[in-house]
Design goal:
The chain has 337 residues and is an alpha/beta fold. The protein has a domain at 2-173 and 223-261 and 301-313: Rossmann fold (3-Layer(aba) Sandwich), CATH 3.40.50. Helices cover 40% and strands 19% of the residues. The chain has eleven helices and 15 strands. The chain has helices at 11-22, 54-63, 79-84, 86-106, 140-159, 190-198, 226-238, 240-246, 267-278, 302-308, 316-333, and strands at residues 2-6, 26-31, 45-48, 67-72, 111-117, 128-129, 162-168, 170-172, 205-208, 220-221, 223-225, 254-259, 265-266, 284-287, 298-299. The strands form five sheets. It has a seven-stranded parallel beta sheet with strand order 3-2-1-4-5-7-12, sandwiched between helices. A two-stranded parallel ribbon has the order 6-15. α1 packs across α7 and α4 (86-106) packs parallel to α5. The relative contact order is 0.16. The model has no long low-confidence stretch (mean pLDDT 96).
């Protein structure tokens, strides 16, 4: 089967492409390469362009009328940057996604999987959230995800489309076969920053925020190996109708599913796990919260188990080890200007 992946030259989109290929399917990549990497498109069907380019998207479906579903990953994703550049984030993540969804409706694409985010959840007692937990996005990036969830739900209700919003928790690691991983040169991801310190590319790791109402004062997250994350996408798109059947075919044609391990880990605990994998302490210090940061949450993943027949299999330690391996290989695999 063929599947269109927007943002397919990015960290998550490229790994989804690899998992699809491993399962015998054909990924078709649409990416502007504004942040994605051309190396991740090698030997794949690739269209360079913008998701808001209606003629381009229509042309993709003319070339490949047998596309079964779209996985929409394309977005700007850096939380602190979103607080400095809200216009860019709303324009890229909302305005352009709206145009994409409209084009998909007009070409008759009925199935969309949307990359959403657990950052839209409010802080709740105990920090574990279900899909029904209250929402309270605290930064422009997260608000763009909430807005597009609402847009997708409205499209599904009005146009007969079917949408699945997968709320990601915190992806870590790299493709275990080292075909892709975090590729930005100045990453904001916590594991990437730890890797930079380990490889001598950064002098110290800063624990940003130590006054959150968690068990040790640092933010709590649900870290999920990216390979586990992408497996959930494969289950969703290859059994799309089955997912809706198991959900009771809701009349709004729309589902929200958490993708997490079900385990809450604080930043201090993550640093300890990292030091356990490397076998020695890293240079670290405490610092203030970043703009837009929240105490965090971790997933109740029961619905994913029920609807996707999925649960995480890989440990945080494996995610750290794969991130370290990718960090050592990245600059030989990717060719920066």
């Amino acid at each position: 089967m063929k599947f269109l992946i927007t943002g397919g030259a990015g960290y998550i989109g490229s790994t989804i492409s690899s998992a699809l290929e491993d399962s015998g399917h054909t990924p078709i990549i649409l990416d502007s390469l504004a942040t994605g990497r051309p190396e991740f498109t090698a030997n794949r069907i690739f269209y360079k362009g913008d998701i808001a380019d209606k003629a381009l998207v229509q042309g993709i479906f003319e070339d490949h009328p047998d596309i079964e579903a779209v996985i929409h990953c394309a977005a700007l994703i850096v939380v602190p940057e979103s607080t400095q550049k809200p216009y860019e984030y709303y324009h890229e993540n909302v305005c352009k996604s709206l145009e994409l969804f409209d084009t998909l409706h007009k070409v008759g694409c009925q199935r969309i999987v949307f990359s959403s985010s657990a950052s839209i959840y409010d802080t709740v007692p105990g920090f574990m959230v279900t899909e029904a937990s209250p929402l309270n996005p605290t930064n422009p990036y997260a608000r763009t995800k909430q807005v597009m969830e609402m847009v997708l739900k409205d499209f599904c209700q009005s146009y007969g489309m079917h949408g699945i919003a997968l709320r990601y928790f915190n992806p870590i690691g790299a493709d275990p076969k080292m075909r892709s991983g975090l590729h930005v040169q100045n990453p904001s991801h916590v594991i990437a920053k730890l890797v930079e310190v380990q490889l001598g590319q950064s002098p110290e790791f800063v624990i940003t925020g130590t006054d959150f109402p968690t068990r040790d004062g640092t933010g709590i997250r649900d870290y999920i190996h990216i390979w586990d994350l992408v497996r959930a996408h494969i289950n969703a798109v290859t059994d799309f109708d089955g997912v809706f059947r198991r959900a009771g075919n809701p009349p709004e044609n729309y589902l929200v599913i958490n993708l997490g391990s079900g385990n809450g880990v604080t930043v201090r605990e993550l640093v300890s796990a990292f030091e356990s994998v490397t076998g020695h302490p890293i240079n670290k210090r405490e610092g203030p919260r970043r703009p837009g940061d929240s105490a965090g949450s971790y997933a109740n993943a029961d619905l994913a188990a029920k609807l996707l027949n999925w649960k995480t299999e890989l440990s945080i330690e494996q995610g750290i080890a794969d991130a370290l391996k990718w960090g050592e290989l990245r600059d030989t695999l990717l060719h920066y200007d």
